[in-house]
Amino acid sequence: MNSFNTNDWTFQTLDTAGWVLPFCLLVLAVTVWVSWSNWQRRGGKGVAALETLRVVIMAMILFTLCKPEFINVTQIEDRPEVVILKDISSSMTTRDVRLGQHDVITREEWLAEQIKTNFWKALEGKAIVHVQDFGMSATNAETGIADGTDLSHALNLTRTRKNLKNLKAVFMLSDGDWNYGDPPQQAAMRLGAEKVPVYTLAVGSDRAQKDLVLESVNPPTFGLLGEQISIPFRVRSHLSVAVKTQVRLTSSRGAAVNIAKQITIPAFGQVHDSLVWAPHDLGDYTLTLTLPVWQEGLEKELLEDNNRQTFHLSVRTEKLNVLVVESYPRWEYRYLRNALTRDPGVELSVLLLHPELGPGSGLNYIGRFPDTREQLSRFDVVFLGDVGLGDKELTKGQCELLRGLVEHQGSGLVFLPGQRGRHHSLIDHPIGELMPVSLSPTNKEGYYIPSESHFKLTSTGRGHFLTMLKADEGLNEAIWKTLPGFFWCAPVERARPGSSVLATHSTKRNQYGYLPVLVTRPFGSGEVLFMGTDAAWRWRRGVEDLYHYRF
């Protein structure tokens, strides 16, 4: 910001009437002549002083007649400001910027290189340049800031920022169209009305590079010896011709594995399939699923490092030890208990903490929560139903043991809230940090909706192993839409950072977006799952174990 002063006299009468100056000069000349004549005639120092005073007084009167003003002007000038908006949405990780004949980098890498050059250096002496990132307008249960592009919000936020006092231009670097928020043209027009032009530069190619991509592999974390293990995968083609090829499963650690499956990928299409492997040896495997590099004549696909994915899988013989902790024997609990009891690969223990009748008894029931870390450590998974901290429920020490089981041993914890809202009592305890979602502090009973609602798979959930009721993602999503729905869901506000939302409520939403009802989150060495409704047992309608047991 520069400031400078200008000082000057102005005479209003002289500016408005041209005759005033000659008149004043004439009167002043006459006064001087009269005073000179009196001094010549009378003489003496006293007369000279008196006549001099008369001339000065007349001059001051004439000076006043001209209406003089002394103006001191201080001017303050703001330096113009320019904002450079840089797209950081997940689509910027697309590799389609070619450097030379064979080198291909991501859009964000190319943009980072341009930012390093300080291409706005020529403006820095004349303007203030701000470089800002943008993506989504806000994070919510379904999306994070990198999951979408809201151009309108970025422009409106720039226009209304209070610290931008002299905005003169906006330069937007993005990879394409907006997919969230209002049309960006409206925001650009508002800036244009304030004489702030918006300049854009598209980053990336307008078409995908010739490439075959092994987009996702969703294996289970373990399998049982002698049983078939399904490994779903998805392959996408950016080629103009159909390709017949094969995917191959190999191992770099553990017993030797070499399985191949033939697939045909349509032009500009994708294939959802699964490869089945029946392990014959125990141990931890490091497996790699590979898609051969495509080449046609001397021209081959530009990106070769996206044709393989490596993952780890453990093969066991022992049964999974599962602990189910519940209060009232609601339908969700009954069907879950029956399904786990029938599973030959599961060793089930059930703790039913009935508030009125006390602990339950019978097949697979235990009378009390494991007292020590050693007793609890044998469980691979714990289902925590509608129970919390309090009398005849869990103690703080038991909750600390559960937290340690997940954090240090790597076991799984499944939160199954109910209409009693007892999970709210866990929020202030350290075990509450494991919960993948934030619950409403004022609503403990949850949301009741008279019409049937359904699970709505997110982009993450469509390819996640947990939600793959069918190997084909298209068929799988159709199944989730037709599954019997639910009428109650937990009072979730939003997913916590680091969580993966697999499914949301189909209709219920708040300021953060659709309510998450199926959320996972890693914690320490283990994994946590939150199931925000108690109606999965309804999936058995007409199909028995087909979907409920698989899930």
**What structural class is derived from the secondary structure elements?**
alpha/beta
Give the neighbour order of strands across the main sheet.
21-20-19-22-23-31-30-29-26
CATH fold descriptor of the largest domain? Rossmann fold
CATH class descriptor of the largest domain: Alpha Beta
What does this structure look like?
The chain is of the alpha/beta class. The chain has 4 domains: 2-75, no CATH class; 81-202, 3-Layer(aba) Sandwich (Rossmann fold); 212-316, Immunoglobulins (Immunoglobulin-like, Sandwich); 320-548, Class I glutamine amidotransferase (GATase) domain (Rossmann fold). Helices cover 22% and strands 36% of the residues. The strands form 9 sheets. It has a 9-stranded mixed beta sheet, sandwiched between helices. A 5-stranded mixed beta sheet has the order 10-18-15-12-13, with no helix packed on it. A 4-stranded parallel beta sheet has the order 6-3-7-8. Strand 19 (320-326), helix 7 and strand 20 form a beta-alpha-beta unit. The protein is elongated, with a radius of gyration of 39 Å.
Characteristics:
551 residues; Rossmann fold; 4 domains
In short:
By secondary structure, this protein is an alpha/beta fold. The protein folds into four domains: 2-75, no CATH class; 81-202, Rossmann fold (3-Layer(aba) Sandwich), CATH 3.40.50.410; 212-316, Immunoglobulins (Immunoglobulin-like, Sandwich); 320-548, Rossmann fold (3-Layer(aba) Sandwich), CATH 3.40.50.
